Amino acid sequence: MRAQGHFDSSATRCLQLADNPESVDRQLRATTLAQLKAENLALVARIAVLEKRAGIATAEGLVPKESWDRLGTEVGRLEKTLSDKEKMAVRLKEVSRSSSEAS
């Protein structure tokens, strides 16, 4: 084993948690990037269609499906985060109340 900080994958095993925060964050970023790329392509295509019509467009179909899906996913994620935070606040209040009553 070398003391200079070199990593030899044939001689050393590196273990990591399957659900570590870095992997979760990397996966979330990759998913978000893929969704944004798809949304961007749909928006560019929609702009091209609208430009061909020379500004004559109705309100129907102006939002691409990819954008709508991404926003729905983001809203769901934010609602879950909000729910978790509210649950944590209620539990902290209960613990605080029970500890003040015990004193």
In short:
This protein is mainly alpha-helical.
For this entry, give a set of tags.
103 residues, flat, mainly alpha, 2 helices
How would you explain this protein's 3D organization?
- There is one protein chain.
- This protein is mainly α.
- It has one domain.
- It has helices at residues 21-52, 65-102.
- Helix 1 packs antiparallel against helix 2.
- The longest helix has 38 residues, at 65-102.
- It starts with 20 loop residues before the first helix and ends with a helix.
Spans where pLDDT lies below 50 across 5 or more residues: none
SSE ordering:
HH
In whole angstroms, the N-to-C terminal distance is: 56 Å
The number of strands is: 0
What secondary-structure arrangement, pairings included, does this model have?
Layout: H1 21-52, H2 65-102
